[in-house]
Amino acid sequence: MATLRVTLDGAPRLLALSWIPELQWFVASSVDLGTAQVVEVRPLLPAIGLFLVLFLLLIGGGAWLVEKRVLKPLRQLRRSASCVAAPRRWRQGNTMHHCRLAGRTKLVS
Fold first, then answer.
1. Which of 18, 44, 42, 47 is nearest to 30 (CA)?
2. How much is the pLDDT for 92?
3. How many CA atoms within 13 Å lie on the side-chain side of 78?
4. Is 84 within 8 Å of 100 (Cβ atoms)?
5. d(Cα 17, Cα 6) in Å, to the nearest integer?
6. 16 and 3 in contact (C-beta within 8 Å)?
7. How far is CA 23 from CA 7, 26, 78, in A?
8. How many Cβ atoms are within 10 Å of 99's Cβ, its own excluded?
9. pLDDT at res. 109
């Protein structure tokens, strides 16, 4: 079987040629790609939906892992470094934070 893109009657077409040995015939089929629905989308919708859900779960899982393994330890490191550098001045807005130094909790005022 061979396929070719050709122009028939001024319109682009897909031409397929095949040989049937039992009949000793060639079969030629011409398809107008502009009007023919080559792939039906409706049966693919569940697979597309599943792919999107899995993709979103993968992205969410990656974001969660980055938060847990990278960002949270960096925040804790920054908080600890701030407590060590200036324990009396470390505040965020109007809330006080606890600094944990050498196993003891110290309230920052």
1. 18
2. 55
3. 8
4. no
5. 12
6. yes
7. 28, 9, 82
8. 18
9. 47
d(CA 5, CA 15) in angstroms, rounded, equals 6
pLDDT in tens, 64-108: 999 999 999 999 898 888 777 765 554 555 555 556 555 555 555
Tokens of 24: 């000793």
Contact 51, 68 (CB under 8 A): no
The 3-state DSSP class for residue 85 equals: helix
- Backbone CA torsion sign across 73, 77, 83, 86: negative
**C-beta neighbour count of 16 within 10 angstroms:** 14
Task: Report CA torsion sign: 68, 71, 74, 79.
Answer: negative
Q: What is the CA radius of gyration of the chain?
A: 34
* Vertex 33 angle, CA 32 and 34, to 5°: 90
